[in-house]
Design goal:
220 residues; Rossmann fold; seven-stranded mixed beta sheet; 7 strands; AB_hydrolase_fold; hydrolase
């Protein structure tokens, strides 16, 4: 579903090959402030606010990951971006993955940080806490939590379709189970796996290590 006049809020910096940054659930593009500052010397960086996050409107379309992938396609069309590198974190990684599966010709390189194929890829304790919170939530908060409780739904075999270079990464103490991250990487033909010390939010907590890893991958 496309909405007339709908536009995502974003900021851009740098020049050259487009690199689109996609933040996690309940966040906004400011999560990537350290990446924008550093990677703008390497790429034309676009940091987006997902629908209903940050300064982007909620709109009237369905509030789910498939719609967010369509929003990304619309954003690229609006800004004349034929192809781009994608770096997604958490729910942003899931959006990036769904986009790459649906529009593979538009993705040059794919970085999936702390993503999951299905809700059970999360640590059971964390998932149970989110499910409990979801039952009590109302309104937009319930919509946000639904993205983690009810999505995504990707089968490992589907990842064989990905032919672009892919970097799968997570933290050593991530809320995503280590075996799930390894399953993702193993299921993608041309992928590499990097586990960084730290938590799910290592791009913000350890930006130097995270950015160094991303630079190595993008510069190859």
């Amino acid at each position: 579903m496309r909405e007339e006049g709908f536009q995502l809020a974003y900021e851009e910096a740098g020049s050259g090959i487009p690199l689109i940054l996609l933040h996690g659930n309940g966040e906004d593009r400011s999560y990537f402030r350290y990446q924008i500052k550093d990677l703008k010397t390497l790429r034309h960086v676009y940091a987006l606010d997902t629908r209903g996050h940050g300064q982007s409107p909620r709109g009237t379309a369905p509030f789910n990951l498939d719609q967010f992938a369509r929003d990304l396609e619309e954003f690229m069309d609006q800004n004349g971006i034929k192809q781009a590198d994608l770096l997604g974190f958490s729910d942003g990684a899931n959006i990036a993955l769904l986009f790459a599966l649906k529009y593979p010709e538009r993705v040059t390189k794919l970085i999936l940080a702390g993503g999951n194929l299905f809700p059970e890829g999360m640590d059971p304790k964390d998932l149970e806490e989110i499910r409990t919170e979801y039952k009590r939530a109302t309104g937009h908060q319930k919509e946000l939590l639904s993205l983690m409780v009810n999505e995504p739904h990707v089968q490992p075999d589907e990842l064989k379709k990905l032919t672009m270079p892919v970097l799968v990464t997570a933290g050593s103490e991530d809320v995503i189970l280590a075996e799930h991250t390894r399953l993702m990487a193993k299921s993608i033909p041309d992928s590499r796996l990097v586990i960084l010390p730290g938590s799910h939010w290592n791009a913000a907590e350890s930006p130097e290590a995270f950015n160094r890893m991303v630079r190595v991958f993008l510069e190859e």
